[in-house]
Design goal:
Blueprint: H1 4-13, H2 21-48, H3 56-77, H4 83-98
């Protein structure tokens, strides 16, 4: 569990606005989900390399994978995007994985 006090302190350090308890709780919830999802993706990355240790590069690669997935989600659910644009987004997403 991520300490709410720490999250609130970090939030207050970056704004002069008041911070509600609900906003702290929501951010803690989001951060915990981010950690769980990132860890699972990093584990997959390590397993692909036949390792038993998650390394920093596995975590870094998660952002690229998240971006690729998000691009594909947008392309798939946007009916106004024509076929050529969808194909371009698919190529862009696949190139992100190769870097």
């Amino acid at each position: 569990m991520i300490p709410k006090g720490t999250v609130k302190r970090l939030m207050k350090e970056n704004t002069d606005m008041n911070i509600s308890a609900e906003s702290v709780e929501k951010l803690v919830e989001i951060l915990q989900e981010y950690i769980v999802t990132t860890t699972k993706m990093a584990e997959d990355n390590a397993r692909k390399d036949k390792r038993k240790t998650i390394k920093a590069r596995d975590i870094e690669n998660c952002d690229e994978e998240r971006l690729r997935v998000k691009i594909m989600e947008i392309a798939d659910r946007t009916e106004k995007v024509n076929i050529l644009t969808k194909e371009f987004l698919k190529v862009l997403a696949s190139e992100l994985l190769r870097e």
